[in-house]
Amino acid sequence: SHGIQAYRVSLHSILDSIELRQNDKALLFKSPNSKIEEISVVYFRTGYSPSHYPTSIQWSARLLIEESRAIKCPTVITQLAGCKKVQQVLCENNIINKFLPENISKSLKETFVSIYPLNKSLSGQEAYHLLMNNPQNYVLKPQREGGGNNIYGLNILSFLETISESQREQYILMEMIHPFLQTNTIVQNNELYHTNGGNELGIYGGYLLRTKDKDKNEGGVMIGCSSIDSCVLIP
């Protein structure tokens, strides 16, 4: 109704339809009726999992799109910033000081839980020792989003036996967060549920608040483990 044309194209096939105009980095698309149009916004519905890049074709398509002046949602920089490995590195001594004044970074780090690599570094060896002594206090996370990928507590020990030492480096070990619990009412499948749960607040210019039951480990909304909530500000 607004006269804005949208196309849905796979990463595998999009290289057959797009090209980059070198003088101004415009992303040009050959539509099904053979009309050449500039694409202003690329919204990714794929590209979030390693399995979404099975060949060099998908990588080449992503690179070409990133090099264009089209608005990307998300950009590769934004996507990488949300990776668990980046979160782990920011927890290392003096790293966050590179981006924030010391007084602010000190206050911010007081809100962090401990996050470790699982490699052969001293920090990685410390993480492995802590895990062996108290596995129930940790969660193992891969470089994935969307829920359903994390491994918790005692299950971490049995999982590590199934992968090699080099494969462990794909994961980070995070101290379990124990949030304040509160009673809440959740609407799910048109039914009301009373629960005792915790909240997770994300701020991205606006905000997103998720609430999940205390007995659930995962917190993904799309996989049915949590629900969208709203804030009540108390002076």
UniProtKB/TrEMBL annotation:
GO terms for cellular component: cytosol. PANTHER family: GLUTATHIONE SYNTHETASE. Coiled coil: none annotated. Keywords: ATP-binding, Glutathione biosynthesis, Ligase, Magnesium, Metal-binding, Nucleotide-binding. It comes from the Eukaryota. Transmembrane segments: none annotated. The keyword ATP-binding applies. Pathway: Sulfur metabolism; glutathione biosynthesis; glutathione from L-cysteine and L-glutamate: step 2/2. Its EC number is 6.3.2.3. This is glutathione synthase. One of its GO terms (molecular function) is ATP binding. The keyword Glycosyltransferase does not apply. Its cofactor is Mg(2+). Gene3D superfamilies: 3.30.1490.50, Glutathione synthase, substrate-binding domain superfamily, eukaryotic (3.40.50.1760).
